[in-house]
């Protein structure tokens, strides 16, 4: 595809924080609507709109797909990579603290002590090393996205709206962005467990996009493996932090899949006396 030229965007190519604005200019120069670009890159129109307006950060994978669709010669991917490589967003520093709810660093509050997350720095109560904090953020993002997917499954939406809403759940929960960080920072066993849970969440998304309802077999066929995978990810994180493993029995469960406690699967869980 012939590369798109847009002189209005050239001034932004050394400003990674302007990725969304640059994407919008390239898209408009190519004569594509948001919906048209969304179809080409397999992202929802709503998410692309958020990236262009700065309400969502976008990620390298999205930037690469947009580069390919728009023929921009890799400009957008380089912007995304440069932004993610900035010390203020990724590297540890003494004047920043780690936010486990997002997987990113943030400025500490005035009354909050700062921490230095050097690899050799001793941990104090309440601290997590950056890879573990990223894993916690990813676990929370998976759970948030699953809850949002359940809401989509309950809603009475036409097929196209259902498809877009299901796609947006993972983007809105920052699943893709935090996953990229974990793939780089996490230890191999932790990343492997995270990927299993992630792929099983994708299976739930695909089932709901295809019309699965919460009380239907199509949903439960993919939900229970996800529940099991998410618990396995939790146990891998405990191991990564040096904590002893937990068993389902210790938490009053028959196993990690939740099948025996699932009313829709026709089985009620009754703890043994």
From TrEMBL:
One Gene Ontology term of the molecular function aspect: DNA binding
Keyword annotations from UniProtKB, A to Z: Membrane, Transmembrane, Transmembrane helix
Region (Disordered): 82-127
InterPro entries: Cro/C1-type_HTH, Lambda_DNA-bd_dom_sf
Tree of life domain: Bacteria
Domain HTH cro/C1-type stretches: 23-76
Regions that span the bilayer: 182-203
Pfam families assigned: HTH_31 (PF13560)
Start-end of Basic and acidic residues biased regions: 108-120
Stored SMART domains: HTH_XRE (SM00530)
UniProt protein name: Helix-turn-helix transcriptional regulator
Species of provenance: Micromonospora carbonacea
């Amino acid at each position: 595809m012939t590369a798109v030229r847009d002189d209005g965007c050239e001034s932004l190519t050394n400003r990674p924080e302007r990725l969304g604005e640059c994407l919008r200019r390239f898209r408009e120069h190519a004569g594509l609507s948001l919906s048209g670009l969304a179809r080409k890159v397999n992202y929802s129109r709503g998410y692309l709109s958020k990236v262009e307006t700065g309400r969502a950060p976008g990620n390298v994978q999205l930037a690469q797909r947009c580069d390919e669709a728009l023929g921009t010669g890799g400009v957008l991917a380089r912007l995304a990579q440069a932004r993610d490589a900035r010390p203020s967003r990724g590297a540890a520093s003494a004047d920043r603290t780690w936010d486990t709810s997002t997987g990113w660093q943030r400025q500490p509050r005035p009354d909050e002590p700062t921490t230095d997350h050097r690899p050799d720095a001793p941990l104090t109560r309440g601290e997590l090393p950056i890879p573990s904090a990223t894993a916690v953020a990813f676990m929370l993002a998976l759970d948030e996205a699953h809850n949002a997917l359940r809401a989509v499954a309950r809603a009475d939406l036409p097929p196209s709206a259902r498809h877009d809403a299901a796609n947006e759940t993972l983007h809105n929960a920052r699943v893709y962005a935090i996953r990229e960080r974990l793939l780089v920072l996490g230890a191999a066993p932790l990343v492997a467990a995270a990927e299993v849970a992630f792929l099983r969440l994708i299976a739930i998304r695909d089932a709901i996009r295809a019309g699965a309802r919460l009380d239907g077999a199509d949903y439960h066929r993919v939900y229970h493996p996800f529940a099991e995978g998410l618990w396995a990810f939790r146990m891998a994180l405990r191991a990564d932090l040096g904590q002893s493993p937990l068993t389902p029995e210790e938490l009053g469960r028959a196993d990690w899949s939740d099948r025996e406690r699932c009313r829709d699967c026709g089985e009620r869980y009754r703890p043994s006396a």
